[in-house]
User: Fold these one by one.
Assistant:
Number 1:
Amino acid sequence: MKIAWAQLNFHIGNFNANAAKIIEQINIAKVDSVDLIVFPELSLCGYPPLDFLESNHFIEECSKTIALIAMHCDGIAAIIGAPAINNNETGKRLFNAAYFLNNKCIEKIIKKTLLPNYDVFDEYRYFEPNINFEIIAFNNHKIALTICEDLWDQQDETFTPLNHAKMYTISPMQELMKLNPDCIINIAASPFSYVQHKTRLKVLQRNAIKYQLPLIYVNHCGAQTELVFDGGSCAFNKEGKLIATAPFFKENYQHFNLFQSDEKLIVEYAFPSKNELIYKALICGISDYFSKQNFKQAILGLSGGIDSALTLVLAVAALGKENVMAVLLPSAFSSAHSIDDALALVNNLACKHQVVPIEDSFQSVLKTLAPSFADTAFSVAEENIQARLRGVILMGLSNKFGYILLNTSNKSEMAVGYGTLYGDMCGGLAVIGDVYKTEVYALCEYINKEKEIIPINTLTKPPSAELRPNQKDSDSLPEYDMLDAILFQYIENKMSAEEICELGYDEKLVKRVLNMVNKNEYKRKQAAPVIRISPKAFGMGRRMPIVANYTI
Amino acid sequence: MKIAWAQLNFHIGNFNANAAKIIEQINIAKVDSVDLIVFPELSLCGYPPLDFLESNHFIEECSKTIALIAMHCDGIAAIIGAPAINNNETGKRLFNAAYFLNNKCIEKIIKKTLLPNYDVFDEYRYFEPNINFEIIAFNNHKIALTICEDLWDQQDETFTPLNHAKMYTISPMQELMKLNPDCIINIAASPFSYVQHKTRLKVLQRNAIKYQLPLIYVNHCGAQTELVFDGGSCAFNKEGKLIATAPFFKENYQHFNLFQSDEKLIVEYAFPSKNELIYKALICGISDYFSKQNFKQAILGLSGGIDSALTLVLAVAALGKENVMAVLLPSAFSSAHSIDDALALVNNLACKHQVVPIEDSFQSVLKTLAPSFADTAFSVAEENIQARLRGVILMGLSNKFGYILLNTSNKSEMAVGYGTLYGDMCGGLAVIGDVYKTEVYALCEYINKEKEIIPINTLTKPPSAELRPNQKDSDSLPEYDMLDAILFQYIENKMSAEEICELGYDEKLVKRVLNMVNKNEYKRKQAAPVIRISPKAFGMGRRMPIVANYTI
């Protein structure tokens, strides 16, 4: 049996475009005499559709579109993820389903059993879990068709979101094995993090080996606001050896015989480095944010520091140098090297730039506020006014010329609230908001590995917000090595203050950092969407109360 | 059997304060010779604790605190909502539980069966649903103890969130009836909306009548950022007649005999008007946002328009006139009546105010941007610069003096994106962000019913943002009567464009409005938290993709 996968980049709610893409691949596969072509989970509507699933109109569009696609399935079968209406009298009104299309019909609808409802996932908000197990008989084969999480029941500690040995009380594959399948198909919408591809491979391989069945896995690629889907579709033989892999972050169509057992066909996954993966994920995140909204041009404030430098490099890589405007916004507190470093980077990238000094506006606002501020010392209020005036100017240029403002905050800053709300926190998309400062350095070194793109001085000088004379980040924050290590244990590993101290960190420091994280939830509530690259990003995957007392 | 309820206002994560409150009520009840005192769902940690539930430390604190409270339960029993650890090998690691404390012990832990996971609820993110049903035997009575949603299985169309006849496949009360209980206790965390109290009463009453059992219902009061809990605890006899009610939005302790059948004890619920409820809910929302974070003073921009006028009245009612600073920020486009109306209101309320004209700063920013803006016409860019400079000034005063900025955007504006991101969208709390413009008028009339607090001119003049000469809202938007009616059908009633048109609205207008709603998701993503007063507020209860194509 000749099987193909179509690892595609879908547009949420764009039924026409998504259907056209699917039909195009079906037609290609027909020419290749493919028997069965497989598309990812919820391909038809894009993932995650969120509360669009509560719209009856949206569901009707799904039904119409799947019927249309079915008409193209003659001489070829297709598996396509899409919502299905629950016709039972009880339960949520939808299933997360896989449609088996054949002979111009919907021949079977297979429903997802395990509905992830943690981190960025909210599937139980919309879908009823499946409880009836069925096999697809096709071409003398019996297919165990599963949807993403359905293969993730055998969790062990290394990848259990809640540290509970087994989050699910049911094993879809164990149920399906009673029906004697001869292969496993898994359609997925599995978002990227820099550890996910390895975990995923391990889980899939374990399923192939455990059930001694060949397995094909088909994932989305492309970005949906915060979430980046890395693709990485793959197929295993029944010994759990890889026989086909798709590239990361790219659309891919491939066909092969899932039941061949030629040892020569076994392939190796060449895992890209963490930096390469993050670099590509962020470019994908920017690129799709723009293309899917028909935006062309980006703007950002370039300070001469490392965060805006990295963001600019990524924006230019994603959108082209002709589509990125870097704005230098010097104040009286900007050092000469800041301007020089920023200009050197602009020069290296050959992108557009302009210089808009904020000093006059700053003085004017101070003068206006002088009666109110009388007899007070220069404080964080004056610091923030500068950051906010930069926001005013960047958004002014954005509104005037249609640029989309990219936010340049890193994850360490967002964690401890070291940023000005409505100032440097402005922007439509927080490009590096899930990248810790130490990871920002590592990414810059990765970018500079062949030639110096980001000026070396940007990488070596001490980080500073330059909002008061001779300010350094280290005046207000621990050194970033230390800060990031503590943040990682708290945010990614969900350790308590006590547990982090047991790792050898100073108790006072740990409590100070954790309290900063907690009390700045209000700022993150109003932050731009963050491109997720870690297993625990700020945004939809981390939901904390704003009003709460949880002093560590 | 003498039963008491304690309708209390808890502080999320503040175990010491919550425990102290609970113990205080237990001690009062002991003096009253109460047999059993009942506290709301998840009292111990506050509701909703969100991802704090993923912290092991947080769960350990819950366990320690419940053990401490149990020590006070001698000569009295108590029912207290708190998370319980799932000791089974499979399933999510927690239950949403009700602890039955007696004889200084945890005598029983009852677990929640129906976990709401729609709108503002995410309970399936944290909790495993109960599947084993038990009765509490106490004082020769057999109590069917249920937790909030557990009584909401018999939904009919009028209050089903997803329009599906029955969302749940199991009925906890039907299971419990097999064990012959003689009363029902329901502990809840049921947030306010202006329809919720009536729906709730109907559901509770239906349970009492259906099972012919007396029923006591105990709810939270107080606000948790977006969510306001209105209390409204109540008790029914087995005929479904009310025998006790608690006030709305206030802490309340009351004891009574659930099994008395004296007809004279039957009470009537005097439902407050919609305006009164919303007025009180918003005051509660402001008040608790401040008190639970140890904030004292609020600031807001007062334009002379109706939205900021209403917000100021609410802030003064919540925080006291001495704690509210109104700032007039006139520009060259501000009309004389705007300043007069604003000053008249300040005068009526006797609150603090200052006038900070933005014209000089506006001109300064324009001059700075002149080289970039050369040869362009005055546009939305210049309009927004004014709104953003107001944000800079208000946040400057906030940072300098510790005021919390209140946002004054209404729901109609937030819906269609008629507001400036980082400008008039600034603020820590969006006080009237769930109140449509037409409801804003109704609330102002309610406030003015005895004497003119909000100047009549503010209520009668055409709404204007005053960001360009002679601007009126109606230049950009449909009349608010029409706009709000369409928005309500789309947002609250989830109707499609087609369905709304069938109600008689113009198709072009409907599509224009719905497209405005969809394409402004990015603004709402960065909005301040909105106090929820409707069944469908922007924020945690409405989750839409930002990047999506869903042109109506």
Number 2:
Amino acid sequence: MKELQERIRAEGQNLGDGILKIDSLLNHQVDTRLIMRCGEEIARRFRDENVTRILTAEVSGIAPAFATAYALGVPLVYARKVKPVTMYGPVYLETAPSHTKGMEVNLLVSAEFLPANERILIIDDFLASGRTLKGLIRIVRSARSTVVGVACIVEKTFENGRQVLEPFGVRIESLVVITNMEDGRIVFADE
Amino acid sequence: MKELQERIRAEGQNLGDGILKIDSLLNHQVDTRLIMRCGEEIARRFRDENVTRILTAEVSGIAPAFATAYALGVPLVYARKVKPVTMYGPVYLETAPSHTKGMEVNLLVSAEFLPANERILIIDDFLASGRTLKGLIRIVRSARSTVVGVACIVEKTFENGRQVLEPFGVRIESLVVITNMEDGRIVFADE
């Protein structure tokens, strides 16, 4: 997605260790018009898949997942990391390491919002190590629903998330692909 | 907002201790079409205020704040509760007690996304004790910007948030007002 790539080129910061800061667009400040167009683009790519529900993980997945769910007209469910008092009854639970927080986090989804036999599109901001997305895929399969695909805003190929997800055999779409962040650079796949 | 009130009447659950569960609409599953209409209604009420930026707190404020920011065409900034590695440089920091998590949480906003002389509308899902909103107001004023108002999806008047915010002299708008949740009931202000 050309527009997004240009914005990342202009505003993204390479913080080292493969960490890309796009806090002006998505992860702290949100350009809602841009993110809505990202959601529309993801919706367009999965238009023929009869998606019935979007699943993401709080916090940074919520904005692009909201935009995609709105474009497709389906409910959004976001995995919680800390159980709120309003969550009771059976939950699906996986754990995943957080790249930007340096600890293991929970992914919690109430069974009541993840029925069986749904066609679920999983969204996240980044495809990096793939481990959050792997946790979400496992949750959907535990619920006996189908993962129709995984979509992310930015894929960093050098962190091998695509390989981590390969055994699950799900379609993966990324709006922008970054292949190299060594030596302070941000190299896009089409360069 | 009649539509929202009817949905809360149908789907909301009174969990006792003043806790209203609306996880099917907003706090775990999100009805993005409904929340977008909520954002449009908030935008309508503040249309003449020259809002330049929306501020909310993660996690549950993000969806209605996204919708409002999109309707107004202004950036959204959400206060983080845990500092991610991408956050560096000066931050505004307040603390607030979390009603549904039973602990004190941080509210962190990077100074780079909260410049001076902005006209900021603060959004949250609930106006309950008012203490998260109070923290956000203090952050905006620390940044020498103006709070043009506070808007929330649901106000619970019996938790006195409006009185807590009164000293700040800011306009407060709520889409649905609940006056009583004793004895398992959910009583709306217009009843």
